Amino acid sequence: MLHILHIGFGEIGRDVVKAILQRPAAATLCGIVDPHPNLAGKNLRDLLGNPSAPALVVQPTLAQALAEGPKPDVAIVTTGSRLPSVRATFAELAASGISSVSSCEELAFPQLRHPALAQELDALAKAKGVAILGTGVNPGFAMDALALGVSAVCSQVTSVRCVRSLDAGKRRPQLQKKVAAGMTPAEFQQGLAAKKLGHVGLAESAALLAAGFGWTLDHIDEKFEPVYATERINAPLFDIQPGQVRGMRMTAMGLRDGRTLVELDLTMAFAAETFDQIEIRANPSITVRALTGLPGDQSTIGLLVNCAQAIDRLPPGLRTMLDLMPVRALGTV
Amino acid sequence: MLHILHIGFGEIGRDVVKAILQRPAAATLCGIVDPHPNLAGKNLRDLLGNPSAPALVVQPTLAQALAEGPKPDVAIVTTGSRLPSVRATFAELAASGISSVSSCEELAFPQLRHPALAQELDALAKAKGVAILGTGVNPGFAMDALALGVSAVCSQVTSVRCVRSLDAGKRRPQLQKKVAAGMTPAEFQQGLAAKKLGHVGLAESAALLAAGFGWTLDHIDEKFEPVYATERINAPLFDIQPGQVRGMRMTAMGLRDGRTLVELDLTMAFAAETFDQIEIRANPSITVRALTGLPGDQSTIGLLVNCAQAIDRLPPGLRTMLDLMPVRALGTV
Asked: Which residue of B has its CA nearest to A301?
């Protein structure tokens, strides 16, 4: 039986908590932390509108959750995308001897943007005998770990391409805003300059793939471009006119000696097709397509809980999905 | 650097050896064993027609290989499909402190047909601190481990279906014979009764999937049926007339309380479409299709070498692909 603490009771966090409660034979939810005044002090039964949920009270801090409840084996953390904003939480958990699994996008490959911070967390985790892991559908699976897993059948990978496309109209309002839905071309350029648009994690996926195949990249070239509506799209929260932005296309190319070893192509737009595709150029070359796509939020929730369930398979330290997908091909160099 | 010994220099073994030689930075081939009089005593350079291959001589026995060469970390064993016929090899390797990775189909889930033998090998492997693992494209990946790996994004799996279809005309003559190509309906029934036809491993895949999702099956229902040609198929080794057998369709259903939890559907026939598809009914339901298929022999070779490369991630004992795919969903019960 795995004892799980959950930190961050937002939209994703709420569904993580429900997913934990759906596997009573394997996991016990032993606490919830969220300092938000609408949540702290509230009873889980009321928050979920489910009288058969455990009578847990959301605690405002980790210290209070640990004082109130049993010691968890692992905490699932769904609070932020950027590592510096979640760092203190991982450090506090590690100091308390608790492993972390988090959807923090930059934690999928923390060495990329925060090498010093990664080193600090790795040393702390090792000293305390806990693991810290970043996961989620993207980064963490659809455009990285799944390709590494599929490559188990391959020899001599020469390059990999992952394409993810999703209909933003079917996603949370938060994501719909993030992809610039309804903006004019000028507004898009402003939002891009202000770094208010786009998706965190494409470069992390590229770095994870390269590390998995044993490639040292010279650099990762990220691009963001708008996708314009050619006809009106009338959705609940957005009435997108022709010529306005219906979403974004983001690419990340991992290059070495002028060769593109990793190519990632992510479209999140209203009225876009929904699928994931992985193309591995190797012996044999393999193309795998998720015909259903890998639905964003639900897949992230599954990964968080399934990785928490596998936490004892990870040696102490700051870990990545590479440690949980040990069978993969080697890349050629 | 991993030191690999190879046992069994047949068609697959030869390509395994080539794949090992293609990754000189990661692995060293330190010996080859095959007692066949056409092979034992021969030099690898001559056998491969490759003067830059290592000047290794094929040894007739494991004992002689160990006397001649350095101690390997792991042996890749490609000698037989049935566990009783390969058992002595695994035992001898374990006794010498060497882990095994093998394409022996029954080793993919040895507990299914040989529980006593599995227990004996497990105890021996644990006593000697080595791992023994069965892998390959099928069983071992296409219809089991890949589905478990994809399920990492799912919660509450209610059932799983894996469909594999391949054009036998593009495979080795050995496989073409195994699928009854060119037989009359009467010959097919005779071959089936004599157990000379079909594929070892579908039930193993069903058992592996069930174990992965935490399901105890009441039983596994295996069926074999011929696929008849409706028009002439003129292939190099077979001239198949309308009404003759062009291949086989095999199914395995894993049942519990009358519910089908696992459904496997394998077609190996001349002029069949080539693809693999995995359908997971869960939250979310996911359908993934390998548009290229997962080519049989090449994929098995990749898996053997890639699993050998991951052997230090396995604790001692008789292991399965479940141990190398730790992130997966739980099934509902």
From this structure: B153
